[in-house]
Design brief:
The protein is about 35% helix and about 25% strand. By secondary structure, the protein is of the alpha+beta class. It has 2 domains: about 5-140, 60s Ribosomal Protein L30, Chain: A, CATH 3.30.1330.10; about 155-320, PurM-like C-terminal domain (Phosphoribosyl-aminoimidazole Synthetase, Chain A, domain 2). The strands form 3 sheets. It has a 6-stranded mixed beta sheet with strand order 8-10-7-11-9-12, sandwiched between helices. Helix 2 runs parallel beside helix 3 (about 100-115). The longest helix has 19 residues, at about 65-80. It starts with 5 loop residues before the first helix and ends in a 19-residue tail after the last strand. The structure holds adenosine-5'-diphosphate (ADP) and magnesium ion. The site of adenosine-5'-diphosphate (ADP) has 13 residues, from helix 1, strand 4 and strand 5.
Length: about 325
Amino acid sequence: MSNVGEFELIARYFERAGHPLPTQVVLGIGDDCALLQPTPGMQLAISSDMLVSGRHFFADVDPATLGHKALAVNLSDLAACGATPLGFTLALSLPAADPAWLQAFSQGLFALADRHHCPLVGGDTTQGPLNLCITVFGETPPGQALLRSDARAGDDVWVSGTLGDAALALDALLSRTALPAATLAAARQRLEQPTPRVALGQALRGIASAAADVSDGLLGDLGHILKRSGVGAEIDAALAIELIAASADSTSARGSFDTASPAQAAALRYVLSGGDDYELVFTAPAHQREAVLQAGAGSNTPVTRIGRITAAAGVQVLAPDGTPVRGDWTSFDHFKA
Ligand code: ADP
Ligand code: MG
């Protein structure tokens, strides 16, 4: 990066002199490597997520929300493992060193980083098409990370927060559906500024049997758990449909369950296959119900039980009378979309 000067840019927007670092970060930005010292006996949890302009976000998106989202989707992976954040690196490719853009981007990024005591410890900066890659580092007690592989038949299926609103906002922004302004604003907030469920993930250690975060759609991400665990699931359609918060359809969707209602069918589709929610889907043995509710309350995160794990493979979405509900609930796949 040549115009502003790569090092001036890093110093001005990404190095934060005098900012306190957690004890596990021995050395942050400025040397050839950052040095991390996990708490003795803890395991490192590492995850990377890349955001590509035109693919994961609109090129003209508000840079502050982009900064938030780039870190949020990474923290969401730590949450899904029940890990405690330690720090992150940022590899950034930028078309130009635009001070207003960088100022807003770093402000959105650091606001979320500070909330999770997760400092930026290093990275790389280059000129090129807008592209962001963050790697997060976290720690977890050995053997206590929440994995995708340990769901068992008879476990409950739970989700955090609300689902479907991000996909609803995306459809509205792409003019595929019309929404009242207030509904769009609320749904857009969910699309652009997702809340990584970091505290809930940690609270579920030792309680949940399996977990994943919902980035590509509930049934798709639950499907990863089912496949890794060699089990299937039943989802209660009437409970699932309650999970969409901002949908204009949701009020009419509530009440008596009726899949013949187009509003209910649309709401159900957003909940089951909409992506970008960054909630957690997790399983827990039935005897842990009270503990799951306490983990939710203790982390200020709503949790809803929406189904159960079955020995038979596959996912069934069931109406209240137990009959299967049919629909196209394929989840997002970058190479098929
Ligand atoms: P190197 O030449 O060894 O790749 P750089 O000159 O790219 O190192 O970076 C100098 C320092 O600035 C390093 O500590 C690096 O981690 C940090 N850094 C570079 N880009 C970023 C960025 N986008 N965010 C945070 N730190 C960065
Ligand atoms: Mg470099």
